[in-house]
Amino acid sequence: MADGNGTTKVGAFGTRVKRVEDPRLLRGDGRYIADLKLHGMVHAAVIRSPHAHARIVSIDKSEALADPRTIAVFTAADLPEMPPLTCIDAEETTLPFNQQVMASDKVRFVGEPVAVIVAEDRYVAEDIMGLVDVEYEPLPAVVDPEEAMKDGAPLVHHDTNVVDTLEYELGDPKDAMANAPHTLSERLVTQRYAAMPMETRGCIADWDERWETLTLHSSTQVPNGVKANLQTFLGLGENSVRVIVPDIGGAFGVKIQIYPEEVFISFLARELRRPVKWIEDRWEHFVGSCHGREQIHDVTVGFDDDGRILSLRDDCITNTGAYLQSLTLVEPFIGVAMLAGMYQIENFEATSTVVVTNKTPMNPFRGVGHVQAAFTMERIIDLIAQERGLDPAEVRMVNLIQPDQFPLAKGIGNVLAGEIIYDTGDYPRVLKRALELAGYDEFRAKQEGLRAEGRHVGIGIGAFVEETGLGPYESATVRVEPSGGIAVYTGSCPSGQGHHTVFAQIAADELGVDISDVKVIHGDTDLVRSGVGTYASRSAAVGGGAVRNAAGGVRKKILAVTERLVEAAASRHELADGRVQVKGSPSRSVALGDVALAVSPGRALPDGIEAYGLEHTDIFHPESNTFSSGVHIATVEVDVETGLVNILQYVACDDSGRIINPLLFEGQTHGGVTLGIGGALLEEVVYDDEGQPRNPNFMDYLIPGIGNMPEKFITDHVQSPTYLNKDGIKGGGEGGAVGAPAAIANAVADALRPARVTATPLTPERVFRLAQAAGLVGDQTP
Predict the structure, then answer these.
(1) Distance of CA 143 to CAs 21, 291, 495, Å?
(2) ∠ at Cα 716 (25, 702), nearest 5°?
(3) Mean pLDDT, the chain, whole residue set
(4) What is the pLDDT of residue 1?
(5) Which of 168, 295, 515, 727 lies at 20 to 30 Å from 699 by C-alpha?
């Protein structure tokens, strides 16, 4: 948006604006669950199973109840009958292996809630935990999904450990494979790891006896979803539950669902008639909050002399842990459905088998399914190149979907996301731009010389397409106050993405004001009655679409009212600098606040205006999901003696449609790549054969630090606007997490040629063993 002098207005759509929410947070004025204190509040501590698989023989809480410090001890027997947690993306064939709010007869993973203690103080509650005597009968556990599918394996639930098998077929894959000049097969494994936000989960439940209403403060990404679930679990009406979300110290998807603790803490508050607070400690987060990623792909690919893919077969296994969670099937679906990524593959078949084991349940987190799909496909592309003696970039160019093929229906879909239809894109342009920024040809020209000097350097490409802007809807209300201020109410719920800034930019762009005049409000189900929340890179595309539409509705009302106030046709008006003025006659203008005042209660409405207030609500239902894409290129140097990987340069070239704020988009890319580096090189939740987690702490579970970051980081953006929302926005928050493991794995494989990289994380030990197997370093066994 331009001002009267033709210059860009500060805060307009598409400009680089610092986040308006940051000053308060940087001053330490954030308000998180742990900061909140209510009058009469008591504290809860959860007793969790120490066994991966066991029957609960008995629970003796008499000694704990005899302790005068104890306020309450609750087990499953003390709770009313409640339904299990819901899996909303289950297919008709999915077996209902759902988790109860609290274990009653059997525990199925280390960390499953068994009882809860309430005391005046959290430390006292933890002391009392030791007074509750839970007798278990240990049962055999199974942690490997392939072992879990064998006859005679320990059964986690009842007759089988296979939750579901999803099957997909396009074209004539068997015939095309049989006639392909070349084939190769590989097993590619993505490990189990987790989001690990700085703030763990937590909640405070408060029952108001006067109004018979429950208020839950929760660190969730989906307040309206949590509200709807609490109504079901506790048998309460819509107007009897309120969910409030304070500041959130990161989420990345791990806070995307209702968890058992939110249910039974709410029940406790109603029973005790006192506010009850529970904060997850870090060990609880490791074992009690959902993990993600663990997936095996057995791939066979047929291709011609030029590396063009003729047929692709994938047999995928997902280890979903002990129970289905709210969106568990997203991982196994996306992991195969998005396998083809940027590439034209006409003959494709896949099975995706979902298996329960005695591990912590899985649910989506940043880049769900796309991480595995990109890692698998991008390694296959490099293996094809290696087989044919071709450059990996050339093989990608040969296989890319072309710009004139959009929109492209993939012929695959699922219950939750519907049919996959690639909306817009220019994949060759994105790849060429990334190669240019990475200095790809120049690197190849000098690579062998560096290798001759004993330096093991490599370059790797990670290309991907990501399904973003997931529906079904999002809500927004935009209101102009008589003060002239603009209020935006959104159903999206931020956890650090910058919603206060970008939604203000959209509203300001539509209404001709500065973003400092716009206040964004969210995270309170009494203020935002309808909303879906934040996940699947949907906030800008769907939440922003709702804000644009709501602001547009208000704009129409402003023009209708001003037409009466200024006595000029609405078509002659323009909005700028917080005023409505007649085009070409700046002196004939009225402030937005005065327009709002003219239709505020307590006065007669102007002729022809039928309702008070300058306000409009939009419920935006996108007709389909939109698809972002990107090409990331990592340049690494590997120390074969230690197995350490140093990232010399990282290039991220993404296409997320039109960008609201390039500065924030770059920050999202940096953060996503950092998470991806953790998945590529460091992070893995490790279990032993008995189902015991072996590294539930940050001493043994390593997350990225400054030493793991690229020496040089380059970001760029190619725009292919979508037609699915007015601003042409696609999602952009997850691309870094998706592209990095594939790009880094390919770079390490390139540096260690002829080593065959087939799994992440590429820890120093694993990299050393690869170098050793490739003959790049001698046997150092004492």
Answers:
(1) 43, 14, 32
(2) 55
(3) 95
(4) 39
(5) 295
